[in-house]
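Write out the 3D structure for:
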Amino acid sequence: MSRIRTALATFLLGLFAVSASATELVMVEEPGCPWCAKWERELGAIYPKTPEGQFAPLRKVQLHDVRRNSDPAELGFALDHPVTFTPTFLLIEDGAEVARLQGYPGEDFFWSLLEKMLIEKTSYQTPTTTDITKPAAFPAPDQATN
């Protein structure tokens, strides 16, 4: 019985270690921020499903929490300089801010600016069409029937 518990504990620890990400995108927001709400409406649901969102999972923090406590041990990351605008998107790599995007420039500009930050500051690589798999609901062209 003890072996089973040890094996289960080892498996669970390994599972958590694999799921931990050294890169994350922190969105600093505040209540009543219209641009934060616009980002949430336009991209909030889709972001985690994108290659960027899988590479740099999103974590949201409140501006008043960042202003009140800038201790990296409490925040989980070190700021390069204070945050003054919302939304501000902080690209965090191994617990340190490596890039930021202040404001929400709209969906099209957001994706291109985020991709540029990820490529320049992390090991992120733009997915190619061969990296993206088709959903099972869509058969390959040679398997389609008439």
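The chain has a mean pLDDT of 83.
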